[in-house]
Write a structure and sequence with these properties.
Elements (H helix, E strand, L loop, with lengths): L1 E8 L12 E8 L8 E8 L4 H8 L11 E8 L9 E4 L6 E4 L2 H4 E2 L18 H14 L6 E4 L7 H10 L3 E6 L2 H10 L4 E4 L5 H8 L5 E6 L3 H8 L2 E9 L18 H6 L3 E4 L9 H13 L5
Parallel strand pairs: 8-9, 8-11, 9-10, 11-12, 12-13
Antiparallel strand pairs: 1-2, 3-4, 3-6, 4-5, 5-7
Helix pairs in contact: 3-4, 3-9
């Protein structure tokens, strides 16, 4: 038997997430496998904001926390995945997983070569695909355009800003600390970086994008921040809504002001997305991201 540790949902997320929302459970998994099965040990687990949404809507109390992981095959009766193989699973927060149907349970994995495996959970994983498809498909950026990214130091936002630079755009990023702002500007190449806790959004955009010249906005935070950004957008601007982290801890429905007048007046195209809508095209996104990483254009 192999001892598996898994983190389950102890109670629903209401307001701020605390340790009381989680429960560590131990279980034994048999090492004697049937033909076609394999036993995997986690190497990396993901911790992403979308997990909260999954737990609130589709993951009952007592279930293992949802999410992807990179794992190593430690016992195998599947010729396709010998011992030592690296696989990507949607197994959640657990140390060991018995895979009975590899075709359904194992996600396609890119050939990483000498690159860190952790990239498969970042730039080559769900955050990377959200950045690649959510930005390029919905914002359709053109060289010379101005792009605003909120949550710009996060897993998705930091990639969106870099992709925008690769596409020849001027990029304005907002983050929550001076250290994060320094990182996205000096290390990632953002043209402007503002600490939204110290600099008002209106003041920042009047400086970095005067005369309502924002073409594209990639939204990770929602709330009043987004309401303000929309007032600085150019006519026919494009908005991609990836998240709303400013509201995740709210215990009541947020009230106005609502941005509908700005959307109407500037004839904005606003679209939200769930990244799995492009799952059939992930190989395309992974190939592009991997190439940019190898070219040292994406960090």
């Amino acid at each position: 038997m192999v001892l598996c540790k898994k983190w389950t949902l102890a109670k629903p997320f209401i307001g701020k997430v605390t340790p009381d929302n989680f429960k560590l459970v131990k279980e034994d998994i048999p090492e004697k496998l049937n033909d076609g099965e394999l036993l995997c040990e986690a190497v990396y687990l993901t911790v992403d904001p979308y997990m909260r949404f999954e737990a609130e809507t589709g993951n009952a109390v007592g279930n293992t926390l949802f999410g992807e992981q990179i794992a190593k095959v430690i016992v195998s009766k599947n010729a396709k995945y010998p011992v030592g193989s690296i696989v990507r699973l949607r197994a959640g927060w657990r140390t060991h997983t018995l895979v009975k149907d590899s075709e359904k349970e194992i996600s396609r994995s890119a050939e990483m070569g000498d690159l860190p495996l952790s990239l498969m959970m970042g730039a080559m994983g769900m955050p990377g695909m959200a950045a690649y498809f959510g930005f390029l498909e919905l914002c359709q950026p053109k060289a010379g355009e101005t792009v605003v990214v909120s949550g710009a130091a996060g897993a998705v936002g930091s990639l969106v800003g870099q992709i925008a630079k690769i596409k020849g755009c001027k990029v304005i990023g907002f983050a929550g600390t001076e250290e994060k702002c320094k990182w996205i500007k000096e290390e990632l190449g953002f043209d402007f970086a503002y600490n939204y806790k110290k600099t008002d959004v209106d003041t920042a955009l009047k400086e970095a994008a005067p005369d309502n010249s924002v073409d594209c906005y990639f939204d990770n935070v929602g709330g009043m921040f987004t309401v303000k950004v929309l007032t600085h957008m150019k006519t026919f601007g494009r908005v991609s809504i990836c998240g709303s982290i400013s509201n995740y801890n709210d215990t009541s429905v947020p009230t106005g002001p609502l941005p509908f007048f700005s959307i109407m007046k500037s004839q904005l195209r606003v679209e939200g997305f769930l990244v799995l809508k492009w799952y059939s095209r992930w190989e395309e996104g992974e190939t592009a991201m991997l190439q940019w990483i190898k070219e040292v254009r994406l960090f």
